[in-house]
Protein: Phenazine biosynthesis-like protein
Organism: Alcanivorax hongdengensis A-11-3
Amino acid sequence: MKLYQVDAFTDRLFGGNPAAVVPLDHWLDDRLLQQIAGENNLSETAFLVPDEQGFALRWFTPTVEVDLCGHATLAAAWVVFHELGFAGERIRFQTASGALYVQRSARGLAMDFPARPGHPENDVDRYEQALGIAIREVRQARDTLVVVDDEDVVRDFQPDFDAIAALDTFAVMLSAPGSDCDFVSRFFAPAKGVPEDPVTGSAHCTLVPYWAERLDKTRLHARQVSARGGELFCALEGDRVQLEGQARCYLRGDLLL
């Protein structure tokens, strides 16, 4: 089987978020899929199988399957367009989060994802104790959005992964207004095998509705300020979020099973 490693949400190698992509003719046993993802030891491995309308797509961290992943979807679309000979302008992926579409765009590839706005979380003190920082507000969706006032707090944050893993949430997103963009963020999911994710498309399904409301604009420029860094151009369109970014292929290889 072929395997590709693609750096997503970046225009350069060694930036953005690396994802493994494994095209399959048919689904393998779930245990084997999880073993492959664990062996890859990247935040996500995407597996795709052709279907009548495009491709079925699944995502695995090193330890669990997830219901939505942005950067591995972007990586999978790059492989379909550039390695599998797909000649169309838009790909349909059937996923655990419904049908997702990726199309060619002026900025690389554009993804159509469901919006996941968060609701206010009242127990701010618990997050301040776990993170060790002053917090403006907390919103809860699948992931927990923690908002602070200063971009430097996000950039300089030193996570206590044990404390974050002990919180009753899938992941924690830390976000603030940006100096050269609309907002910045970082993403931590240590309980799910991803201590810090370099660039997280699915997080922006919650980040974009929040910042669109707060900044009173529907088109947003975002940066994820991890060590690798990444850039996303986002838009809120009703109950959908549009995410645009670039990708670069780092590796082509063979799985020997």
Helices lie at 30-40, 70-82, 124-131, 151-156, 161-165, 204-215. The radius of gyration is 17 Å.
